């Protein structure tokens, strides 16, 4: 496998995540404009998962790469939930809304459950599924082209 496929997979998943973040935010805060920090943080989560997970699992079989892309989208959503959940716990702790450590732990899981419940909106799921399919096919085709070029030498 080529090392160039990892950054390509990372950029493709980061782009999908940035597009999905712009559709995801209005479900969370309908009256606020989409902040750039939210989109950038989501794109960085997609970049990390694309580099570490999707780029390492590109295979010669198309269905396996598409399956890995679907898994990468789910992992990106879980990583973003972790990042924003921890951020919310620290923000609430700074405001002294949590009196005990267990309240912070429970608050993290409450925030994570509410965050992931927003992703169960049908339009978001369709966007993520079609995006994962496109990213998987794109990465697989590029990998096949690079592999053909390498073997022709």
Q: Could you walk me through the main structural features you see in this protein, from its secondary elements to its overall organization?
A:
The structure is a single chain. By secondary structure, the chain is mainly alpha-helical. The mean pLDDT is 88. The protein starts with a helix and ends with a helix. 81% of the residues lie in helices and 0% in strands.
Care to give the gist of this entry?
This protein has helices at residues 5-28, 36-54, 62-94, 101-118, 122-151. With 153 residues, it is mainly α.
The SSE order reads HHHHH
Average pLDDT reading: 88
Q: Uncertain spans, ≥5 residues at pLDDT below 50?
A: none
Number of helices: 5
Distance between the termini: 15 Å
Structural class: mainly alpha
State the helical fraction. Answer: over 70%
Question: Largest sheet, if any?
Answer: none
User: What gross morphology would you assign?
Assistant: elongated
Proportion in β-strands: under 5%
Query: What is the total tally of β strands?
Result: 0
How large is the radius of gyration? 18 Å
């Amino acid at each position: 496998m080529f090392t160039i496929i990892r950054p390509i997979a990372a950029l493709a998943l980061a782009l999908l995540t940035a597009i999905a973040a712009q559709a995801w935010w209005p479900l969370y805060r309908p009256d606020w404009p989409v902040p750039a920090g939210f989109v950038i943080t989501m794109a960085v989560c997609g970049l990390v998962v694309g580099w570490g997970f999707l780029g390492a699992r590109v295979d010669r079989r198309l269905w396996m790469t598409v399956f890995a892309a679907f898994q990468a989208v789910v992992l990106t959503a879980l990583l973003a939930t972790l990042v924003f959940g921890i951020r919310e716990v620290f923000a609430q702790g700074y405001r002294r809304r949590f009196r005990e450590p267990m309240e912070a732990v429970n608050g993290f899981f409450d925030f994570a459950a509410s965050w992931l419940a927003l992703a169960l909106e049908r339009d978001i799921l369709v966007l993520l599924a079609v995006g994962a399919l496109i990213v998987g096919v794109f990465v697989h085709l590029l990998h096949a082209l690079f592999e053909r070029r390498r073997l022709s030498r």
